[in-house]
Design brief:
single chain; Rossmann fold; eight-stranded mixed sheet; 35% helix
Amino acid sequence: MSTATRHERTLSLWGKQIKPRVFVGGEGRPVIFLHGAGGLLWDDFLDALARNYTVHAPEFPGTSPGEYDAIKLLDDWHDLVVYYSELIDELGLKDVALVGHSFGGMIAAEIAAANPRSIAKLVLVSPLGLWRDDTPIPPRLSMNGEEMSEVFFHDREVAKRFMLSPAAAVTHPDLLLAATWALACAGKFTWPIPDRGLRDRLHRISAPTLLVWGDKDKLVPPIYAEDFRAGIADSRLSLVPDAGHAVIHEKHRDTARAVSEFIGT
């Protein structure tokens, strides 16, 4: 249940052609949260962060109401990274902590590598962005709902809340359609595999970095955490027990606590 008081603001980016919504809640040091490929969901994890920080959560381009064509304006991965850098500049925040989950973590890492001085602290929660031939990432964009539920979640009870089942198409077609479209928008930049050469740029990240991983992650197994830690000089790992890729939903208290202890005040 979401409890944080929040408001919306709309930015004007990319030559005033893209106007994403940004949800803002809480008080304190600014934190920017970049959501995963399934779309933005403000739930218990962001509520927990908003108790200590002012959280700014932008929607991915193309997923805000009335902005569905915006995704056509970004041609490639370079465009996307520049777009998000512009978004952060437009927010006009100082001493920013950047938090990204999954696909959002991949974007966050690229921003921190491209503009090392723009981010004070970086948190990557089960980020995509690297590839290992010995431990390939499952093809999530070609999976059905039940298959996605299996690789995203360790806790089956939590998984049920996200309606990744055939019945969802009948009972909540609007929500399922929105999530499918969000995945398609992200897929434009990660298909067929989520590797755009980030490994070669990790050394440019100078912000102190926290890596958060569920120890039962089936989508991006914890072995990837070691690759991120090896590539980012000032980095540390917090491994959350009994959690899958959706660690921010399955263990929102543990994840928020680790993030808050790292970011500080």
